[in-house]
Amino acid sequence: SRSPGRSETRAATGRVFGPSQGRDRRRTSRRELGARARQALLGAMPPKKPGAGDKNLKSKSPAEFFLDNKGIAGFENAGKSLYTTLREFIENSLDSAESIGVLPDVDIAVEEVTLGEYEDKIGLKAHVRKDNALYADFETEKERAKRLAAEAKKSAQEAKAAEALAKAKDKGGKGSKGGGKSVSTKDDKGDKRDAGRGKTFFRITVKDNGKGMAHDDIPNMLGRVLSGTKYGVRQTRGKFGLGSKMALIWSKQTTGLPIEITSAQPKQKFCSRYVLDIDIEKNEPNVHKAEKIGNPGDWHGAELSVIIEGNWTAYRNKVLSYLRQLAIVTPYAQFHFKYVSAASDARGNVDAMFRRRTLVMPSPPLTTKHHPSAANEDQLLVKTLLSQTKEKTLVNFLHKEFTSIGKEHAARLVAELGKGFEQTTAPRDVTETQATRVQQLLSYARFADPSGECLSPAGEYNLRLGIMKELGPDWIASFVGPALACGGHPLIVEACVSLGGKDVKAGHNVFRFANRIPLLFEGGSDVVTRCVQRLNWGSYKIDKNNDKIGVFVSIVSTKIPFKGTSKEYIGDDNVEIAEAVDRAIRACAAQLKGKITRAQAAKERRARKKVLSRYIPDCARAIAAMLEVSAAAAEPPSKRARHGAAVTTAAAGSNGGKLWTVDPRWENDVLGRVRDGSVTLATVQRRLEEHVERIDSEQALEYSMQNKEGLSEAMHLMPTGSAHAFLPIMYHPTCAFRLLDAAAFKPK
Fold first, then answer.
1. Rounded Cα–Cα distance for residues 534 and 523 (Å)
2. Contact call for residues 389 and 373 (beta carbons, < 8 A)
3. Is the pLDDT of residue 196 over 70?
4. What is the mean pLDDT of the chain?
5. Average confidence (pLDDT) over 660-681
């Protein structure tokens, strides 16, 4: 027997290729592989023949998968889902505004929806119960007797504690810790009828001034899981095309209500208005309403409104903390947050404005190519790029499809690949074995770190402004590390360390950001927290227990190695990131050490100056008295000093010869001014004060010259107002200047 020939195999499959069609066949096979990969991404399976295979074999759409596993996307409970929905909507708004270079203005509203309003929305009418015993909130006689007995027992205990407290007060004692509590007649469990309906619903509305969405793209952008515009090697706040769709899935699961979208793009004469939800089984948008309405105000942006089940009470502090930290890392944005309770009492309402502090926005991130070291992390990367590249030669493929590979370097790499590789080899002709060889070489070769120009860090300028605006610290130090490659992706670490400030507790206060997103959960496991705990703060003259230490670390990259899709924290197991974070925090701590040392030296000088100033009045009176006596004498003091024939040579040398030698003209001038009243007690006192000031300044200058840390100080300048005309902003990696226009400047 023999294996069938190539032509027979092709004939058996019904596909015959001639010699001239070999190249087209390779292209077709790569297209088929790409189509299969896309099909697998969308969760589709090829049709199964009737009666073939296991009957239990099924597939799930991405929407069904994330509905069953919503916890990995941050929707594990009602409170966390409320927080995550707000976060995803707000971050999409920031990305939208920054993409067109507009300073973000984001309005956020959380409105509690009553049960009656919710039932009206879903078309239910008030139902009159016919059989109360069917309901979970029905209280049987046995349960009622048990509850009343528990209430009576609790009331007796509270009465006894109150009586004991009263007796202790009569005796002058402090009373027991458990006494003094008011007796509550309300059942701790609350009304069982209300407890049975414990769900609370909220309408979340987020409106921005971003670029909006194209009318025909809105259904797929919000109604199809894993579809989005943020795929690729580029720094973005989101990456999976999941966040806003998960909010829609949560809404459909908990309320069954659709999402309402209003959007308009810049210079667009109409607004797009959609009402839609998602078909979970098919992973497709289900459009209820789509229309185009007028846009008379030339507004652009997007407004999303959705009603979901939530828990505001449990996550109120998390939401406000998130907004506060977001205002720190994006001081160029303005956020208006409003919470409206359904209760008649308005004390629980919140109306907070996080105002813009600066007009300087970071440069937008750019799409880049993969770093060669990414081949070590992704075994399929080289094969994928070979199938998709438009380059004609292998050397151009290495040069154009990867960063940090120059033309000469690419030629050396091709030569190193060995037999079967030429610089002119077409990438489409590279076999799978050869592609594996290319991947192997890129994994072990040495390459320069990426430049980091494609990234958009917050910048020291904005980070400092945000911290000063929200916390108002006494001291602050900042540092931005160089770009490095982490898992084949460029990464930059920024850090600020502050001391003091408002609403800051003693000890470590860690603020973590990733791609300018505040991270609020799983802080104990995060790489930043671990680095802060390992650092010996005492060596930098910082008391880690009593000082108010604020540590701010922002990490930006084209791919942040989050633990889980919900973007909660960055693990400490990543050595490159841990070392970069540690270097950044140490650099900030070293700057603060210099500030603390200078402050301590200044404090010592002030203490010394205070001591000297304390004796100035007494010294001035003594000197003024001696001058008055000398001016009234017949001879000046130099003539009356003990010298002459009766004094030995040794005594003259030690007493009058050197010690009392003065300039006669200066002496006569001083005594003359004393006689005519030009030199008085006030004059002497003023001269002594000037001498103390001069000595203090000279010592400060000498200290600064000896301590190089005192010769430089980072400064960040901002205009005090907008009353003048300014020139265009001049940018620098660490600051931005906006100078006055001399032609338009008119001094008062």
1. 15
2. no
3. no
4. 80
5. 84
Which H/E stretch holds residue 106?
A: strand 105-113
Residue 710 has pLDDT above 80, yes or no: no
**Is residue 723 very low, low, confident or very high in pLDDT (cuts 50, 70, 90)?**
low
pLDDT tens digits, 487-527: 888 999 999 999 998 888 899 999 999 998 899 988 888 99
**What's the DSSP call for residue 298?**
-
Q: What is the largest CA-CA distance in the chain?
A: 143
Residue range 353-380, pLDDT digits in tens: 999 988 888 888 888 888 898 888 888 8
Structure-token pair, residue 325: 């930290």
Contact 453, 366 (CB under 8 A): yes
How many alpha carbons fall within 13 Å on the CB side of residue 454? 24
| pLDDT per residue as tens digits for the range 552-563 | 999 999 888 887
Whether 264 and 272 have beta carbons less than 8 Å apart is answered as: yes
Q: Which region among 236-250, 390-404, 701-715 has the lowest average model confidence (pLDDT)?
A: 701-715
CA separation for the pair 223, 619 (Å, rounded): 86
**DSSP 8-state secondary structure symbol assigned to residue 658:** S
Report the percentage of the chain scoring pLDDT > 70. 79
If pLDDT is split at 50, 70 and 90, which confidence band does 465 have?
Answer: confident
Give the β-pairing of 489-499 and 475-480.
Answer: antiparallel
Token pair, residue 427, equals 């990438």
Long-range contacts of 128-135 (CB under 8 A, 24+ apart): 135/196
Cα 285 to chain centroid distance, Å, stands at 33
Higher pLDDT, 473 or 230: 473
Q: What is the dihedral of CA 63, 67, 73, 74, to 10 degrees?
A: 150
Q: How many residues appear in the chain?
A: 748
Dist. CA 8–CA 14, nearest whole Å = 10
User: Mean pLDDT across the stretch 85-110?
Assistant: 93
Looking at 15-132, list the stretches that DSSP marks H as alpha helix, in order from N- to C-terminal side.
22-41, 62-68, 78-99, 115-121
Contact in structure between 574 and 562 (CB atoms under 8 Å): no
Judge contact between 646 and 714, C-beta under 8 A. no
Higher-scoring residue by pLDDT: 632, 585: 585
The b-or-e profile of 580-592 (16+ CB within 10 A means b, else e) is bbbbbbbbbbebb
Predicted TM-score (pTM) of the model is 0.71
Strand partners, 484: 491
Element (H, E) at 491: strand 489-499
CB atoms inside a 10 Å sphere around CB 551 = 23
From CA 416, how far away is CA 413, in angstroms rounded?
A: 5
Output the CA–CA distances (angstroms, integers) from residue 376 to 142, 381, 522, in the order listed. Answer: 68, 9, 29
According to DSSP, the β-strands at 301-310 and 105-113 are unpaired
Angstrom distance (rounded) from CA 397 to CA 424: 10
How far from the centroid of its chain's Cα atoms is residue 612's Cα? 49
d(CA 72, CA 66): 8
Sign of the four-CA dihedral 466, 467, 472, 477: negative
Phi, psi values for residue 214, rounded to 5°: -65, 145
Residue 176 CA neighbour count, 13 Å, CB half: 12
Strand partners, 263: 272, 302
The whole-angstrom separation of Cα 165 and Cα 176 is 6
- Tell me how far apart the alpha carbons of residues 698 and 702 are, in angstroms, rounded to a whole number: 6
Instruction: Calculate helix-pair angle for 681-706, 575-632, nearest 10 degrees.
Output: 150
295, exposed or middle or buried, with CB in 10 Å at 0-12, 13-18, 19+? middle
In angstroms, the CA 528 to CA 524 distance is 9
